[in-house]
Amino acid sequence: MDFVDAVEATPEIREHLKAGLQAIGAPGRKRIGVARASVLGSVDMDRALREAHPNAARWDYVVGVETSDDDTVVWIEVHSADSHHIDQVLRKLYWLRGWLKSRGRPMDGHPRRFVWIATSRVAFRKGSVPANKLAQAGLEFPVKHLSL
């Protein structure tokens, strides 16, 4: 099942699929560059799941990227990257993983990346305790600009 089929098979988000990066809000979209990849579509996860999960720590976006082997699903959180925000972003990641194992199962089978796009400077270094905590959770080190 490709990315678009997976989104369409997921009732909570199917109506929110947009072409290219159109679902990404302006603060995040200007921080994403598309070089060689082909973007298959995007979903504003926060907006799509707001009504069904109003008190959840919802993840921001998902983008499908066509690759040679299989579509890659890039889960994107746009958030300030101070060390005191790490637990907040990790809560969102853990919630997303739980959602993927339950209501989001069609989205769970593709190769994936969990990416944190920093809205300003990154206030901790690679190799630091906070960075290692992110890596152990499977979240990439925050970047100011993401290249797909």
Task: Describe this entry's structure for a reader.
There is one protein chain. This protein has 148 residues and is of the alpha/beta class. It has one domain. It has helices at 3-8, 26-29, 45-49, 86-101, 129-137; strands at residues 17-18, 32-33, 38-44, 61-66, 72-81, 112-122, 146-147. It has a five-stranded mixed beta sheet. The two termini are 21 Å apart.
Concise account of the structure shown:
This protein is α/β, with parallel strands linked by helices. Helix content is 27%, strand content 27%.
Keywords for this entry:
27% helix, 5 helices, 5-stranded mixed beta sheet, alpha/beta, 148 residues, two-stranded parallel ribbon
Count of discrete domains: 1
Q: Structural class from helices and strands? A: alpha/beta
Number of strands: 7
Spell out the helices and strands N to C: HEHEEHEEHEHE
Largest sheet: 5 strands, mixed
| Helix share, percent | 25-40%
Low-confidence stretches: none
Distance between the termini: 21 Å
- Proportion of strand residues: 25-35%
Mean pLDDT: 93
Basic shape:
globular
Number of helices: 5
Strand order of the largest sheet: 1-3-4-5-6
Radius of gyration from the alpha-carbon trace, in angstroms = 15 Å
